[in-house]
């Protein structure tokens, strides 16, 4: 295991940021810390980097206890949401910074900077100032700067959070490919479940300062540990006291299956290929169902129609803890 | 301007479009520029030109004789020397005070923050009185600096203190903390972070404050007349010298000395600007 976090607690005043967090992050993988804003995931990342210190608990990186080490000695690369560029230095100087601190020879620095700028596709911008770059380019520069020192682990704090949707999507695909190329143990913080599911090998779901579940994207989606994880990783609706994904609800126009919930379609909304159906059940609950346009047409659904709802075979369901 | 594309090629109006040095002025901003320039001319340019004209009217020889007069030279040396020295001191002290005010938390910080402006806001003659009470004859501090060169430096340091503090402080407040964290995680120690990351961002502000501080120092009068005693060859500064020329009816000499100070101020402000550009680029 590359990073071992054991029994970490952190308070800000009387706000509990992290509560008894135990996580092991595997070597060479891309791990996402996923959770809602203010849930403690960024704090955990900063504690790994040494930018914040845990009140109790230990952090070990590659087997060495880093709990008391200052950030300078941890050999981690850190990428910030708002790029944290050195404004007065050129792109090449930014990337060279960590190498200059390590007193590498001029020739070695020039060579390495060249290599890294190629890696992040910024070679032609080497002599520009960061202010002359777009947000996506700045973040790639920040990534090159962090990678320059050959860190044991690369930590990214909401790296694409400040970028617009299109660039964000491009960059996360690029990050995945980059990771496969350089293979450094990488941890990134995100509140976007789609980003985590698409990019990460492993996801740690953090909420209210606690780890809710750790697993691969498929495990989390298919076997969520609780209603929070289920709800955070995708759309949910409640049917018969269970949480279920709206596309996992089968709709029939006649009572063919035992235990089906009877209701009336109160609203239908079509968005492209998808139809969102709201069913008001006889016991007064609203159930959301999504299906393809073709399927809805085949069933001949329309508003006001009586329908029967069942969970599809193999659907993931989680008992509702509280009313959703 | 947006209709330029639709304009037929042979419209005569096109030939009137300036080719070189295209101005972006609209009617409104043209008017604003006109008002600004008139005001600036009335207040600054015309009086300054008048001084230079008066000096020029006396001819080169007269100018040279006035300026190279021993007493005048001593006053010039004292004024420019003390102003440079005090400004250099302010660069360190002002930056340090700004740093403490922004980065540290301590009891009485808000009071100190407000008190910094007192030397600037105080009528200069009151400042002179305060200094006289503390450093004059029978000084409670045991420092009898009245009528010495130290009194000039002291008065200048007193009135110029806020300039660099007030220019550096907002820039320091605006610095993003994550930039320093990024440098730290790349292995930079606290001194390196200050020298290579923080200082280059502060330099333009320090330079602006230094220029203000120097300008104020060479023009200071009120705060030092009481304490310095205005002794020729010893504690007489240029502004005092100019005043005594005028009181003696020697307007030409006053204008000549004023012109010299005008040149000194210009040279120093340009030099400060050049230095700050150089330093800010390095990093």
UniProtKB/TrEMBL annotation, chain A:
One of its Pfam families is ABC_tran
Matching PROSITE patterns? ABC_TRANSPORTER_1, ABC_TRANSPORTER_2
Check the record and name the InterPro entries matching this protein. AAA+_ATPase, ABC_SmlMolc_Importer, ABC_transporter-like_ATP-bd, ABC_transporter-like_CS, Mo/tungstate-bd_C_term_dom, P-loop_NTPase, Sulph_transpt1, TOBE-like
Residue ranges constituting the ABC transporter domain according to the UniProt record: 3-233
Q: Which GO terms describe its molecular function?
A: ABC-type quaternary ammonium compound transporting activity; ABC-type sulfate transporter activity; ATP binding; ATP hydrolysis activity
User: Is Ribonucleoprotein included in the keywords of this UniProt record?
Assistant: no
EC no.? 7.6.2.9
Keywords on this record? ATP-binding, Cell membrane, Membrane, Nucleotide-binding, Sulfate transport, Translocase, Transport
**Any one GO cellular component localisation term in the record:** ATP-binding cassette (ABC) transporter complex
Q: Which organism is it from?
A: Nocardioides guangzhouensis
Name used for this protein in its record: ABC-type quaternary amine transporter
TrEMBL record, chain B:
Q: Would I find Transport among this entry's keywords?
A: yes
Q: Which UniProt keywords apply?
A: Membrane, Sulfate transport, Transmembrane, Transmembrane helix, Transport
Identify one Pfam family in the record. Answer: BPD_transp_1
In the UniProt record, does the keyword rRNA-binding occur?
no
Cite the GO molecular-function annotations of the record: ABC-type sulfate transporter activity
Q: Show where the ABC transmembrane type-1 domain sits.
A: 76-272
Gene Ontology CC annotations of this record: plasma membrane
The lineage's top-level taxon is Bacteria
**Where mainly found?**
membrane
How is this protein situated with respect to the membrane?
Answer: Multi-pass membrane protein
TM region positions: 31-60, 80-102, 114-135, 197-218, 252-275
**InterPro entries for this protein:** CysT_permease (IPR011865), MetI-like (IPR000515), MetI-like_sf (IPR035906), Sulph_transpt2 (IPR005667)
Provide the assembly information. The complex is composed of two ATP-binding proteins (CysA), two transmembrane proteins (CysT and CysW) and a solute-binding protein (CysP).
What this protein is reported to do is described as: Part of the ABC transporter complex (TC 3.A.1.6.1) involved in sulfate/thiosulfate import.
The record's similarity note reads: Belongs to the binding-protein-dependent transport system permease family. CysTW subfamily.
Q: What is this protein called?
A: Sulfate transport system permease protein CysT
Q: Which organism is it from?
A: Nocardioides guangzhouensis
């Amino acid at each position: 295991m590359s990073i071992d976090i054991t029994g970490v607690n952190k308070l800000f005043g009387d706000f509990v940021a992290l509560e008894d967090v135990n996580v092991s992050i595997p070597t060479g993988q891309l791990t996402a810390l996923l959770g809602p804003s203010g849930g403690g995931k960024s704090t955990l990342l900063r504690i790994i980097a040494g930018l914040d210190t845990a009140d109790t608990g230990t952090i070990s990186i590659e087997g060495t206890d880093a709990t008391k080490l200052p950030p300078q000695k941890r050999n981690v690369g850190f990428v910030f949401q708002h790029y944290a560029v050195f404004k007065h230095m050129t792109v090449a100087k930014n990337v060279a910074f960590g190498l200059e601190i390590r007193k590498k020879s001029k020739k070695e620095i020039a060579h390495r900077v060249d290599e890294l700028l190629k890696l992040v596709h910024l070679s032609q911008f080497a002599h520009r100032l960061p202010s002359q770059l777009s947000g996506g380019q700045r973040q790639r520069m920040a990534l090159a700067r962090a990678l320059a020192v050959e860190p044991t682990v690369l930590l990214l704090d909401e790296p694409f959070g400040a970028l617009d949707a299109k660039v964000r999507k491009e960059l996360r695909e690029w990050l995945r490919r980059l990771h496969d190329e350089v293979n450094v143990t990488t941890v990134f913080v995100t509140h976007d479940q789609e980003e985590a599911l698409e990019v990460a090998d492993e996801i740690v779901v953090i909420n209210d300062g606690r780890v809710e579940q750790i697993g691969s994207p498929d495990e989390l989606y298919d076997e969520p540990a609780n209603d929070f994880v289920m709800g955070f990783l995708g759309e949910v609706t409640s049917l018969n006291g269970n949480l279920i994904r709206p596309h996992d609800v089968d709709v029939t126009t006649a009572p063919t299956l035992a235990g089906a919930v009877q209701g009336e379609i109160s609203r239908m909304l079509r968005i492209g290929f998808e139809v969102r159906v709201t069913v008001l059940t006889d016991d007064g609950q609203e159930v959301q169902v999504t299906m393809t346009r073709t399927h809805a047409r085949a069933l001949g659904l329309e508003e006001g129609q009586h329908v029967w709802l069942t969970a599809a075979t193999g659907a993931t369901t989680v008992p509702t803890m509280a009313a959703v | 301007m947006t209709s330029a594309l639709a304009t037929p090629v042979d419209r005569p109006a096109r030939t009137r479009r300036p080719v070189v040095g295209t101005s972006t002025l609209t009617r409104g901003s043209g008017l604003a520029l006109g008002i600004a320039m008139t005001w600036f001319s009335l207040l600054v340019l015309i009086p300054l030109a008048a001084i230079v004209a008066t000096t020029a009217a006396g001819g080169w020889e007269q100018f040279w004789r006035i300026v190279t007069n021993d007493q005048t030279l001593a006053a010039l040396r004292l004024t420019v020397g003390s102003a440079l020295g005090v400004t250099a001191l302010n660069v360190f002290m002002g930056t340090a005070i700004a740093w403490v005010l922004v980065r540290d938390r301590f009891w009485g910080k808000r009071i100190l923050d407000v008190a910094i402006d007192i030397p600037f806001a105080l009528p200069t003659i009151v400042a002179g009185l305060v200094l006289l009470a503390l450093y004059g004859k029978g000084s409670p501090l045991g420092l009898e600096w009245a009528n010495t060169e130290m009194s000039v430096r002291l008065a200048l340091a007193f009135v110029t203190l806020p300039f660099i503090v007030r220019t550096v402080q907002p820039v320091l407040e605006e610095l993003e903390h994550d930039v320093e964290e990024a440098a730290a995680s790349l292995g930079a120690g606290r001194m390196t972070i200050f020298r290579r990351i923080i200082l280059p961002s502060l330099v333009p502000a320090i330079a602006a404050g230094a220029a203000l501080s120097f300008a104020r120092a060479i023009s200071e009068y009120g705060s030092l007349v009481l304490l310095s005693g205005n002794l020729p060859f010893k504690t007489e500064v240029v502004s005092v010298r100019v005043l005594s020329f005028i009181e003696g009816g020697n307007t030409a000499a006053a204008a000549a000395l004023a012109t010299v100070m005008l040149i000194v101020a210009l040279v120093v402000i340009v030099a400060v600007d050049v230095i700050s550009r150089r330093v800010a680029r390095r990093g």
